[in-house]
Specification:
Helix content is 63%, strand content 0%. It is an all-alpha fold. Helix 2 runs parallel beside helix 4 (113-128). It is flat, with a radius of gyration of 18 Å.
């Protein structure tokens, strides 16, 4: 069996290592709940992975339709996770009482709210071009059909 190439995809490996490290350090301080800045950063990461997964699904589907479909299903599930993080962000307390709502028609109080809402709206436009509202709300399975 050939050995895995440890030099391939160095940026993905670095991102994975960073998340593992953060997860370990955060678990040691388990009494600390997530804050808005934490969820904003996590949302940024999920959105970037979501875009990358979309690209992989698009390029994998023509030569390998079954694998491409699995990646497309993962793409939808990741969007659901990204939307849940966005919703959780707005449920956390803030300094001002009226700033928890996502109101894209007016500018919120500034970063990180401005960045997370803009990022979420942009990602939402991208996924809605490829999926239906039903696809976004239903639980998907990637089990092979027989």
């Amino acid at each position: 069996m050939p050995e895995p190439d440890t030099t391939s995809h160095p940026y993905l490996r670095a991102a994975t290592a960073g998340i593992r490290h953060h997860s370990r350090t955060h678990s040691r301080a388990s009494d600390q709940p997530a804050d808005r800045a934490h969820l904003d950063t996590l949302h940024a990461h999920l959105t970037a992975v979501h875009q990358f997964l979309d690209q992989l699904a698009d390029t994998t589907h023509p030569p390998h339709p079954a694998a491409g479909q699995h990646l497309a299903n993962a793409h939808t599930r990741l969007w659901q996770a990204t939307a849940a993080v966005h919703d959780a962000f707005h449920l956390l307390p803030t300094a001002s009482q009226d700033s928890t709502a996502c109101l894209p028609e007016r500018l919120p109080e500034g970063p990180p709210v401005l960045t997370i809402c803009q990022r979420h709206l942009a990602a939402g436009h991208a996924i809605r071009r490829k999926t239906t509202p039903t696809d976004l709300t239903r639980t998907r399975t990637t089990a092979c059909q027989r």
